Amino acid sequence: MPHAPETDEDDFVAIARPQPVFHVEQALLGALLLDPHRLGDVTGIAADSFSTATHAAVFAAISTLPPPEPSEHAKNTTWLNQVLATGREQARGLTASDLHAFIQVCPWPRHAAAYARMVEAEHARRRLQTAAERLVQAVHDASLPHPIQTVLAQADALTTVVDDIAARFPPRSGVLPRSPAPPPAIAPDHTEAVEEEQLLLATATAHPSDIESVQWLLPDDFTLPLHAGLWQCLTALARRREPIDPVTVLWEAQQRGLLDHGSDPREVLRLLAEPAGSVEHWGERALQRSLLATADYTGRRIEAYASDPANTPFQLVVGTRRSLADIGAVRTRWQHASGTVPTPQPRPAPTTRAGPPTTTVPHTARAARATR
Question: Most CB atoms closer than 10 Å: which of 107, 207, 265, 294?
Answer without folding.
Answer: 294
